[in-house]
Amino acid sequence: MMANSPEQVINRSQVLAGLAVAIVITAATGYYFWPEQAEDVAPGTADVAPRQTVLGPGSLSGLQGDGSLLARTADAQSGPPAGVAVADNQHLLVNFELRGVLDYFLLERADPDRVSAMQQYLQSKLPAPAYADARQIVEHYQAYMQAHDALLASQNLGSPNTEPHNLDVYRIVSWKEQRDRLRLNMLGEPAVQAWYAEDDERLNKALQRLQSARNASDNATGQTQNAGNDDVQRFPGRRDVSTDDMQEAEIYEIIGRETTSFKTLALAMQQWVPRYQAFLGDMKQINEKQGLSPMERNQQIYELLLKKFPDKAERQRARYRLPQS
Q1: What is the distance between the alpha carbons of residues 152 and 175, in angstroms, rounded to a whole number?
Q2: Which residues are bridge partners to 87 per DSSP?
Q3: Does residue 51 contact residue 96 with C-beta atoms inside 8 Å?
Q4: Residue 36 and residue 257 in contact, taking contact as beta carbons nearer than 8 Å
Q5: Can you tell me the distance from the alpha carbon of 50 to that of 97, in angstroms, rounded to the nearest whole number?
Q6: Residue 185, Cβ neighbours under 10 Å: how many?
Q7: Cα distance between residue 32 and residue 105, in whole Å
Q8: Cα 158 to Cα 171: distance, rounded to the nearest angstrom
């Protein structure tokens, strides 16, 4: 286990408190959630640098940069993504990539040996102090997945197919506040920041835009309808509602993704895996073609990516899974 020190990242008392309030705690789970990554960029453009947090004192080491899409396909495979890293003091780096590794074993895979496979993988990649850190994080993450879905079910927010005009902004905001406390108590501040900061920023922005649109609609409707009419209290989902750089469709996409259970998303992820494996096979054939310049090869791979994954979230997931050069 990790030594208790002023610089230790996980506040153990916070974690234990969170575990005590968890609705369900389990040693293994088949649930999945993967956040939307940054917007797709043209081939050869670098992605956003990964976030890093150290468990225990020490400076960062072994950071990786991103290269072109072509360079990242050379060693592409269907196994766990790269990203497990340690600090100079041999403790674990809690970064965004770590969550991708955990999700691969716990959520992409449905086989009964996935937990033991994950333990063996982490043990083979990490020194003893970092492996102890990882085991603790895995335990807390599994418990959080179960507690998250139980909390979500208790809020009755509706299904992912809920019509936009039926979205209850106040109920979603209340649920988010409870979920945020659950995350902080069960995962700790470093993991919350590394894993969810960008998702939280997007959700907060989406809720603000939705609330603004709803308020504008309420004000306009109130001039011609009785204030007691129930329709005044509902966001009508008008197609002309958008503010700043966030469009209406994006608002609903973000809210829908954030209010979907891990269990539901796990099923979608496990259906994504065979298509990703097929993409890797087609990509290998492009890499083996003779007479193509690097630019032509890179362009063909990018076009293949667009063809195999027309959905933006799935395409971004595939890009992230490619090795970092």
Answers
A1: 7
A2: 60
A3: yes
A4: yes
A5: 7
A6: 23
A7: 10
A8: 11
Task: Report, as an integer, the average pLDDT of 291-308.
Answer: 92
Annotate 111-164 with three-state secondary structure.
CCCHHHHHHHHHHHHCCHHHHHHHHHHHHHHHHHHHHHHHHHHHHCCCCCCCCH
pLDDT digits (tens, 9 = 90+) for 127-150: 999 999 999 999 999 999 999 999
Rounded CA-CA distance 274/281 in Å is 11
Residue identified by tokens 């608002």 is 251
Mean pLDDT, residues 297-301 taken together:
91
Which residues partner with 243 through β-bridges?
A: 246
Closest of 261, 253, 262, 237 to residue 316, by C-alpha:
253
CA distance between the termini of the chain: 33
Q: Which of 10-24, 80-94, 202-216, 271-285 has the lowest mean pLDDT?
A: 10-24
Cα separation, 151 vs 155, in Å, equals 7
CA-wise closest residue to 2 among 100, 150, 129, 106 = 129
Cα dihedral 50→51→54→57 (10° resolution): 100
Residue in the structure block whose two tokens are 């790269």: 82
For residues 299 and 88, give the distance between their C-alpha atoms in angstroms, rounded to a whole number.
39
Determine if the pTM surpasses 0.70.
no
